[in-house]
């Protein structure tokens, strides 16, 4: 029996989800007898103590005490502004770190963090959970096996059923940074190509408060890859049919759709077609439940040295570069070249 102790910082919405998934690692996702235990910390102590008690986890009042307790890995689920210093704290302690995306508030702030991780031989996995979704994994396998031929078109869709609080949007960095960055990451990961240019447009037809804080509720980006292939990335905060995340990959030999199943949030306009008949997902946590659980299992495997890092900080920053270009294009109305870096390859 191998014991692994994880320390979780931040028990908001994402943190609670990760805490539950960590608690479940000793079940079906853990057939090898690895005993995973959990320690929590959060500035909202009463809330965190309650979550810990419900999961049979421990609570400590500070990050410093959490690390000093001898955790084998640090899971960061706090606000983006705290990510750089918490990542550095885990690296300084010599333990692997899992951090929700992004690395920092913007690429400029993230670059010194990348330098720090590399200079100190840190191991940091960033939370781009779509890399663990069965559909995306199958699409990547099929493409790499040559079953699709060469790709001529890609269409990525991410639609929230309802917008998050305006207070969150005011500091999220914009729809492309907050939402579409997942699509930018998965397009790089699946194709193995870099996005070199973005042209974006957006609109506000929902809550005027979203526009008042400088965001849009719906946007579309035309992306160009380094081999000339083109694709689109669209997002909205107002998809009343349900939470809808899909990727259409059209190749010279075959086409695939990720996210097309009985819970797809749409209906056919054609006569006699009942598909899909299931209840659509309502939230991203429902849509990617399996992927989030697999992501945390992968972090434990990374701690144990059983796998390579499935999403490096360099990968995450590369996706953020595209998101930054999309936000710039949205603001200026002209196509924007993506600033690439040698460390982007992932």
Automatic annotation (TrEMBL):
Gene3D superfamilies given in the database record: Dihydrodipicolinate Reductase, domain 2, NAD(P)-binding Rossmann-like Domain
Annotated Gfo/Idh/MocA-like oxidoreductase C-terminal domain residues: 145-338
MF terms in GO: nucleotide binding; oxidoreductase activity
Highest taxon, organism lineage: Bacteria
Domain Gfo/Idh/MocA-like oxidoreductase N-terminal: 7-128
UniProtKB keywords: Oxidoreductase
Membership in a protein family: Belongs to the Gfo/Idh/MocA family.
Name of protein: Gfo/Idh/MocA family oxidoreductase
Upper taxonomic lineage: Bacteria, Bacillati, Actinomycetota, Actinomycetes, Micrococcales
